[in-house]
Every structure is written in C-alpha cells, then in structure tokens.
C-alpha cells in the first residue's frame, strides 16, 4: 500500500469519526443503558411533614422580607428621601382677587 492510500484512508476515518452528523444518534444508537420509570427515586417519608417544614421556612422568609420592605419604606418617608409629588390643593381663590 502506498503512503497516499494510507493517508487517504486515515483522513477518511478521522473525518467520519469527527464529523458524524447528529442524525446517527437519533436513529437508534444508544449510549449506555436505557432509562425507564423504574430508575426514578422512590419517595420516602410523609409528604405533608416535609411540605409543612418547607412552607414554614418560606413563610418566615416572606415575613422577613415584608418587614424589611416596610422598614425601608418607613425610613424613606421619615427621611424625606422620596417626594411623592402630590397634586396642588383645590381651594377657592380669595374674593378680592376675583373682583379686581
């Protein structure tokens, strides 16, 4: 076999291995064992106990965030950081200005 034939064969093999289209994987080539529903983890323990524990943590986080928000808004109002731009008062003008 000549050197050019060996190089041609080697380049063809590497091209096939590196640049294989993705359709080969989708048409029946499986890598590893087939996964079924039996491979999923089985729940253990009481669902309500775990849910109650998780909900108590979430409720504490909600209360803490509401308290922090209220404290932040309270400080902003106390320190006059935010000007809420109220509308002008709707009062009647004095009568002496209207007569002149």
Helix content: 55-70%
Radius of gyration: 38 Å
Largest sheet, in brief, is: none
In DSSP terms (H or I, runs of 4 or more residues), the helix count works out at 4
Quaternary structure of the protein? single chain
Shape: elongated
What does this structure look like?
The chain is mostly helical and 100 residues long. The chain contains 4 helices and no strands. It has helices at residues 3-18, 23-26, 47-78, 95-99. The longest helix is centred in the middle third of the chain and has 32 residues, at 47-78. The radius of gyration is 38 Å and the shape is elongated. The N and C termini lie far apart (118 Å). The model has no long low-confidence stretch (mean pLDDT 80).
Q: What is the secondary structure topology, with strand pairs?
A:
Elements: H1 3-18, H2 23-26, H3 47-78, H4 95-99
Brief overview:
By secondary structure, the protein is mainly α. About 55% of the residues lie in helices and about 0% in strands.
Output the keywords.
elongated
């Amino acid at each position: 076999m000549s050197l050019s034939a060996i190089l041609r064969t080697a380049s063809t093999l590497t091209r096939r291995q590196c640049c294989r289209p993705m359709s080969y994987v989708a048409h029946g080539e499986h890598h590893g064992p087939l996964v079924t529903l039996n491979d999923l983890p089985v729940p253990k323990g009481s669902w309500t106990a775990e849910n109650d524990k998780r909900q108590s943590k979430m409720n504490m986080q909600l209360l803490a965030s509401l308290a922090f928000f209220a404290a932040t808004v309270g400080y902003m109002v106390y320190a006059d950081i935010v000007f809420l731009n109220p509308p002008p008062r709707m009062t009647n003008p004095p009568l002496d200005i209207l007569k002149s």
